Amino acid sequence: MKLARRKRNMALITMTPLVDVMMILLVFFMVTSTYLDLDMMPMVQSEAEGVAAPSGPTPTLLIRIAASGEARMRGRPLTAQTLATALQAQPRARVLILPSGGANVQGLVSAIETATKAGAENLRVVRLEASE
Amino acid sequence: MKLKRRSQPPPQETIVSLIDVIFFLLVFFMLVGRMDATAPFEVSPPVSTAGESLPKGGTTIAVADNGALALDGEAIERPALLARIAELLAAKPHLFVRINAHGEARLTNLLPLVTALEQAGVGDVVLVVTPNPA
After folding, report:
1. Which of A53, A106, B45, B85 is deepest in the core (most CB within 10 A)?
2. CATH number of residue A74's parent domain
3. Residues from chain B contacting residue A105 (CB–CB below 8 Å)
4. Domain tally for chain A?
5. Does B36 fall in a domain?
6. What's the complex ipTM?
7. Is the pLDDT of residue B81 over 50?
């Protein structure tokens, strides 16, 4: 006597563990990623070295940053307006920022921002050497 | 006459669509996120709307408000940092260095470092700023 073997249903591929794996990956990327909206300001640019310095003396506008973080130009508090006016009078002027070592990074960044908004193109920060 | 309704097996929940949703979320977070090593101290970058968009990649130096330094997420002293930068520079001459300084950090902790990096031969140093305060 031949017994017919009962045909078994094909085993379904279980999708549930896949969801688990996906979930773990998802949580991993959510936790390890940072979602800060960050910008940058160039401090050293190698391309800038190639720019030939204009011949003849260049007028210079000096911005000082006090230890409190306040920026002053020609003894007055720096605003984009006053700097833009000064740059109109001397279009080829370079803008030099002389920060006090006691000022904080925010003070420097604010001064650079003001100068950029006033349209300063030739902008440099005087970097003090470490006094150790 | 009462007809007995045949009891149906409960419909299987379609797990497949759930996988799709999670997969989309996964791809979304992978694209939006930035995989940076976070510094071992608190760093909130200075606020400025005049910044340019920050490219990905490169080496990150973090500067805390008390002057502590970290290179790619690991606390490091200044001489060791400069030695490490020199090593990286030897391997990759066009090194891109991002300085993620705390907004309250003093410039005496930042500007000499930038000078040292420039003297070491790093041609591309940027300061990280954020367009909107946290």
Report:
1. B45
2. 3.30.420.270
3. 46, 63, 101-107, 110, 127
4. 1
5. no
6. 0.71
7. yes
